[in-house]
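User: Please predict the structure of the protein below. I'd like the answer in structure-token form so I can feed it into my own downstream comparison script.

Assistant: Understood. Taking the following sequence of 241 residues as input:
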Amino acid sequence: RMQKSPLAKFAQSVMEILTYGGFTCLGLRVVPSQVWIWPSSLWWIGFADGGHEIMRWDLRCYYLLYTARYVQAGLSVMLETRRKDFVEMMIHHIVTVVVIYISYIYGWNRVGVAIMVLLDPADVPLHCAKVCKYLHDAEGGPMWRFLADRLFEVFAVVFFVSRIVLYGYVCWSVLIEAARYFPFGLAEWTCVGLVYTLMLLQLYWFTLIIKVAVKVMRGQEAEDVRSDDEAEAGAEGKKRQ
């Protein structure tokens, strides 16, 4: 596999900011405007009677765009330089696409969009931090490193709130609250299993975030511990020469 140049990494991070930022804005515009968004009991009340599969046009558009984006992202993960968490990323993309598909056709779209809108915001400050890091590597100076470290701190906080606390509440609602309103069958238990698989991945990534946070607290530079295995590839190439 070809190694990415710093310019290619910079360009990719800018694209990720636009993509995640755009979907965050779209999700925050569409999802909170639904009449059933809160309290969470409205995600489940009346599901057994039917009608939950009916969606407003803007919500259906958000669903389809989100699905297309995750399919594309899954293909990109396979084509790009492999990261250290390649397997976890593939599981994440596959599980997310399956969750979106099942929730869309089975009528669990209310909790489906709640999950979707929580997964995007943290990636915006993450890639902003990466952009600042690449600028620091290219130009030097303390400002870019300072901004990268502060943006990483913002990312860590947003990740904890959105993907650990709020997504943890969604996991509780899917398993406990939903069971109060209808019995679970194969489709329901499949969704529960997939949702909790995503939760395990969030916890795994949060441990990586904590490792980077410890480095920053020690005065070291924030580095993406999921970064491409290019250093190892380069070292192997030199050994063979």
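That's the full token string. The helical segments are 6-30, 57-79, 86-106, 109-119, 123-139, 142-177, 186-217, 230-240.
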